[in-house]
């Protein structure tokens, strides 16, 4: 299972329960974070990016997931060939059976771009003659959408009961201390 979230805490906030259930079942889980978190105006961008990556790794460790950190500068994600190539490489490297990502209708431009790039890359990853360091994906890879912030224009068709892993989801979210410490200039 490959979850692709635009920001370091998106996978935890919007689909960590599902990922925890997959991990508990014995499935291999990958948590891809697209942007580096450096867009926060409070502090040195390189240090903030380092902190965000460390927090994301701690959250992934709680369920034995593998973290994939694309490190595209926060707020600068665009739908272009270079970005799409990173997504294609990620999909090919993981050879996931399905992908979870943001819905196309969302409040944040990085979320919208991530959704568009996943949809494009999932198809191109199957193209045998696309140049890559990994073999092409030989199967159709379905894409599921995680919840959108505030439920904006999101009408779910499937639900996953995460009652039995709720405590793990909360622990994963709380690994992102930089997002929950207003006294250090971070927005809770």
What characteristic shape results from the CA principal axes? globular
Strand order of the largest sheet: 3-2-1-4-5
Q: Indicate the mean pLDDT.
A: 91
Give the N-to-C terminal Cα separation.
Answer: 29 Å
The tally of beta strands, per DSSP, is 5
User: What is the chain-wise order of helices and strands?
Assistant: EHEHEHEHEH
Strand content: 5-15%
Name the structural class: alpha/beta
- Biggest sheet overview: 5 strands, parallel
Q: Determine the number of helices (DSSP H or I, runs of at least 4 residues).
A: 5
pLDDT < 50 stretches: 184-188
Radius of gyration: 16 Å
Q: State the share of residues found in helices, binned by percent.
A: 25-40%
């Amino acid at each position: 299972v490959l979850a692709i979230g635009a920001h370091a805490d998106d996978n935890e906030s919007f689909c960590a329960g599902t990922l925890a259930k997959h991990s508990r079942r014995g499935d291999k889980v990958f948590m891809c974070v697209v942007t580096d978190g450096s867009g926060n105006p409070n502090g040195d961008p390189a240090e903030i990016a380092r902190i965000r990556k460390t927090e994301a790794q701690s959250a992934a460790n709680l369920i034995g997931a593998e973290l994939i950190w694309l490190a595209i500068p926060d707020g600068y994600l665009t739908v272009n060939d270079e970005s799409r190539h990173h997504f294609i490489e990620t999909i090919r490297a993981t050879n996931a059976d399905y992908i979870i990502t943001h819905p196309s209708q969302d409040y944040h431009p990085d979320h919208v771009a991530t959704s568009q790039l996943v949809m494009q890359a999932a198809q191109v990853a199957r193209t045998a003659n696309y140049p890559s360091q990994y073999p092409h994906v030989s199967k159709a890879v379905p894409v599921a959408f995680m919840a959108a912030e505030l439920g904006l224009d999101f009408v779910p068709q499937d639900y996953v009961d995460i009652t039995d892993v709720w405590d793990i989801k909360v622990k994963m979210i709380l690994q992102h201390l930089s997002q929950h410490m207003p006294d250090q200039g971070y927005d809770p």
